[in-house]
């Protein structure tokens, strides 16, 4: 492993050249990425990976639904951080940049191996009368009874299956929102979508998942 | 700029279930301007169907989150 042994900093970047590994470990994400970009520091890369490996893996796993793919994404993203550190803009948030690398890699993997979904979300959207009322009335409130009526494992399998029917992008939006808890503008930055587009995708994905649960419980989708 | 960004949304009327359903996401993330928010709540008071839809939409989010965290 290389060590950081730079004697001077001609770029005027605020890098402490005598940092020992323990000092380095206190550095901000952004400063570590600069060390990688400027000095190809593998130590800085290792520290970044210590901090984010689990998050990279978790996000990749939720998007790909496959442990091997998720491991591959971790490998590939590790290399990409090293290779593309120079393209990280220091005025942006490291985690946003990282999520972009992770989701790009996971989505492109899915596109290579899987056919696009055939389910149209439109078939699962709530329907309304001309006057704007719900077409299926009454709408049943199953929120209190779902867990009594259906075993947890079964609920999980309904959601897992429905998640797989979402397009890779829609699934990624759900993962970033519901588990990584990114805001809609952040998700937009990661995926290159407008905030409006993020909200639209998230709302439709939620209504799709809701309809899938409702139907499995024996109720009307909407 | 710190704090909550100003909403650019104009007051939207919530006259129908279709209107209410389209605003669910923003209602739950507290992004609606106060006027639209109270219109939304007024609709809920007179419409059990939208209450049921809202409750099951929220429940779906909750179940999705716990599914994603479990595995
Ligand atoms: Zn209604």
Describe the protein:
The complex is a heterodimer of chains A (222) and B (71). With 222 residues, chain A is mainly α. Chain A has helices at residues 21-24, 29-39, 42-64, 67-84, 94-113, 146-149, 152-165, 168-178, 184-191, 195-216. In chain A, 61% of the residues lie in helices and 0% in strands. Mean pLDDT of chain A is 86; it is low at 1-19. Chain B has one domain. Chain B has helices spanning 17-22, 24-28, 34-46, 48-70. In chain B, α3 crosses α4. The longest helix of chain B has 23 residues, at 48-70. In chain B, 28% of the residues are buried. The model of chain B is unreliable at 1-7 (pLDDT under 50). The A-B interface holds A 61-62, 126, 128, 131-134, 137-144, 146, 155-156, 159-160, 163, 174-175, 178-179, 184, 199, 202-203, 206-207, 209-210, 213-214, 222 and B 15-19, 21, 24-26, 29, 48-53, 55-61, 63-65, 67-71. The complex binds zinc ion (ZN). Zinc ion binds next to α1 and α4 of chain B.
Cα distance spanning the termini of chain A:
58 Å
Strand element count of chain B: 0
Helices of chain B, by number, come to 4
**Oligomeric state of the chains present here:** heterodimer
How are helices and strands ordered from N to C of chain A? HHHHHHHHHH
Alpha-carbon Rg of chain B, integer: 14 Å
What's the domain count of chain B? 1
The helix content of chain B is 55-70%
The unique ligands bound to this protein are:
zinc ion
Helical run tally of chain A: 10
Category by helix and strand content of chain A: mainly alpha
Largest sheet of chain B: none
Biggest interface and its residues per chain?
A: A-B, 37 and 31 residues
Instruction: Give a short account of the largest sheet of chain A.
Output: none
Q: Kindly give the count of domains of chain A.
A: 2
Compute the CA-based radius of gyration of chain A. Answer: 22 Å
C-alpha termini separation of chain B: 37 Å
Helix-strand pattern of chain B: HHHH
The shape of chain B, in one word, is elongated
**Low-confidence blocks of residues of chain A:** 1-19
């Amino acid at each position: 492993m290389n060590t950081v042994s730079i004697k001077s900093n001609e770029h005027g970047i605020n890098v402490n050249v005598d940092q020992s590994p323990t000092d380095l470990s206190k550095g901000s994400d952004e400063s570590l990425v600069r060390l990688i970009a400027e000095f190809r520091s593998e130590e800085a890369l290792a520290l970044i990976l210590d901090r984010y490996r689990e998050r990279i893996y978790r996000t990749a796993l939720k998007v790909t639904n496959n442990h091997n793919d998720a491991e591959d994404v971790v490998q590939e993203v590790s290399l990409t951080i090293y290779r593309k550190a120079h393209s990280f803009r220091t005025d942006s948030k490291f985690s946003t940049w990282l999520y972009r690398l992770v989701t790009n890699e996971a989505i492109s993997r899915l596109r290579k191996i899987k056919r696009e979904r055939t389910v149209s979300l439109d078939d699962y959207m709530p329907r309304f009368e001309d006057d704007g009322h719900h077409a299926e009335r009454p709408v049943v409130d199953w929120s209190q009874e779902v867990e009594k009526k259906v075993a947890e494992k079964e609920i999980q399998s309904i959601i897992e299956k429905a998640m797989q029917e979402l397009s890779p992008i829609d699934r990624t939006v759900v993962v970033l929102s519901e588990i990584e808890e990114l805001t809609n503008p952040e998700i937009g930055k990661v995926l290159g979508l407008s905030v409006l587009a993020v909200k639209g995708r998230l709302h439709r994905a939620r209504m799709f998942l809701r309809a899938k649960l409702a139907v499995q419980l024996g109720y009307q989708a909407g | 700029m710190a704090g909550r960004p100003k909403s650019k949304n104009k007051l939207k009327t919530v006259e129908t279930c279709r209107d209410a359903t389209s605003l669910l996401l923003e209602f739950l993330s507290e992004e609606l301007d106060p006027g639209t928010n109270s219109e939304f709540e007024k609709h809920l008071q007179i419409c059990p169907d939208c209450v049921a839809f809202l409750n099951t939409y929220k429940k779906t989010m909750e179940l999705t989150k716990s599914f994603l965290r479990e595995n």
